Amino acid sequence: MSLFKQVSAVLLFIFTILFVLIIAVTFGIIKDSAEKSLYENVQNSVTNLSLSITNSGTEISSIKTVINASFDNGNYEKIIFKDVDDNIVYELKKETNIEEDKIPKWFINLVNIEEVSAKSTISNGWNVLGILEIYNDRTLFFEQTYEIFKNLVFSLLISFIVLLIILSYLF
For residues 41 and 56, is the Cβ–Cβ distance under 8 A? Predict the structure, then answer.
């Protein structure tokens, strides 16, 4: 075996280990940061929507109107309004269809995050009207992390090919 092949084999082994470590660490950081960001976003949304509902009135039609407006303008999987006995009064749900031609199923299973939600109690003075729960849409998370994954893999492969080309000229 020539020196070039020996060096290439060692570098391939080292590159593979580094590749796996970089991917694992990067996606751990991305996943944690995205979950925190999604939670903060949904927490702010439930707080704002609760205040809007309180200001709009206590009638169910007013509550539905505010929820509909928020749902239409936000990135939510679902919004649920429950009464004080925990019975669902109103629920809006969006079908989340992640297109497998854009994001493969194995990737979704690899970086899957649980539903991100926040709750808020809605009251008018001392009178509790109900509980509002908002679930954030995770589709954007999957799309962005897959793009990051593709770019990272592409960058690492290009750097390895450049390294092999340089080594082939040296040896």
Answer: no
132: which 2 tokens? 């509002």
Per-residue pLDDT 10s for the chain (171 aa) are 787 778 778 877 888 898 889 888 987 888 888 889 889 999 999 999 998 888 887 788 888 999 999 998 888 999 999 998 989 999 999 887 777 778 888 888 888 788 889 999 998 888 888 999 999 988 888 888 888 888 888 888 898 788 778 877 776
pTM score:
0.76
* CA 70 vs CA 44, 46, 47, 103: distances in Å: 12, 10, 12, 28
Q: Among 119, 124, 134, which Cα is nearest to 62's?
A: 124
The helix/strand count (H/E) of the chain reads as 4, 4
